[in-house]
Amino acid sequence: MKFLKCRTCILNFFLTSFIFTLYGCSNGVLNPKGYIAVEQRSLILTAFLSMLCIIIPVFFMTLFFLIKFRENNSNANYKPNWSNSHMIELLVWGFPILIICFLSILSWKSSHDLDPKKLIISNVRPIKIYVVSLDWKWLFIYPNENVATINELVFPVNTPIIFELTSNSVMNSFFIPSLGSQIYTMAGMKTKLNLIANESGIYKGISSNYSGVGFSNMKFRVIITKNYFFFKKWIQKVKNSSDRLDFLLGFRKIAYPSENETIKYYKNVEKNLFNIIVKKSQDIKK
Ligand SMILES: [Cu+2]
After folding, report:
1. Which chain residues have CB less than 5 Å from ligand 1, an ion?
2. Among residues 156, 151, 174, 155, which one has the least CA distance to residue 164?
3. Which of 71, 186, 245, 271 is the most buried (most CB within 10 A)?
């Protein structure tokens, strides 16, 4: 009876862990919504499967050797002077070497193909968006539209996006799991990231690098509109807000640490604000 209870317990534990493990797949890296993320998922799966080619035979061979060479098995050959088998050596060294070669070529090729700096080829004109990580919120600046938002990122589907990123304080990491490629933001430095979404919808954006007490709520909403028209409509909505954003007044205010920040829109952004922010941190370093 006690044994049965324990068994249900263990079964429950494994079932729950299994569900929780798969729960993350619903809107993350394993459920990609853009070209880059699709390629990254196939890379993860290929690497995973090729490593299983080693692990699974090892598991079976362990069982096989345990059973075959157990003490009371009188059918097994008894070879007290056996010391070496070229066949076994070839198998245990050969396969791992082949797989390591395969994985090295794969990683080398895909890290060049999926280089965050590489422009995504498309016949749609790309959109440029500046990203600034603040304590503890995200600022998105649309230089060509002259608008900015806090914690809301909107762009149309099937349009390449060129992100330029920096941080106004400590290091953070910009990550939209459904679109792939997380990238770090650092004060006084500019990094680039090219992404594309191939499916419209609302996704989650996070900071994947711990950056202080307000970090856990440093999230942003990503809205991929069905077409350019809806994107323009959204830009118009942002332009209807009353707030302006310039470095000396507005930016200093939003850069002040705060947690659980709501979405905010700014219609008028100081020209070159992004570069001013980068330069400010460079000047402090000097
Ligand atoms: Cu750096």
Report:
1. 186, 189
2. 174
3. 245
Q: How far, in Å, from the CA of 181 to the mean position of ligand 1?
A: 17
Q: Which residues pair with 74 in a beta bridge?
A: none
Closest CA to 29 of 40, 15, 17: 40
Rg of the chain (C-alpha set) = 26
Dist. CA 53 → ligand 1 center (Å) = 38
Residue 266: its H or E element: strand 264-266
First-to-final CA distance of the chain: 72
C-alpha 191 to ligand 1 mean position (Å): 8
Angle between helix axes 86-113 and 35-68 (nearest 10 degrees) is 170
Instruction: Flag whether pLDDT at 65 surpasses 60.
Output: yes
pLDDT tens-digit map of 182-206? 999 999 999 999 999 999 999 999 9
Q: What is the pLDDT of residue 264?
A: 94
pTM: 0.83
Residue 19 has pLDDT above 70, yes or no: no
100 CA distance to ligand 1 centroid (A)?
Answer: 30
Residue 29 pLDDT exceeds 70: yes
Q: 199: which residues sit within 8 A by CB, 6+ positions away?
A: 33, 34, 157, 224
Instruction: Please spell the DSSP secondary structure of 123-186, one letter per residue.
Output: SSPPEEEEEEEETTEEEEEETTTTEEEESEEEEETT--EEEEEEESSS-EEEEETTTEEEEEE-
Tens digits of residue pLDDT in 209-224: 999 999 999 999 999 9
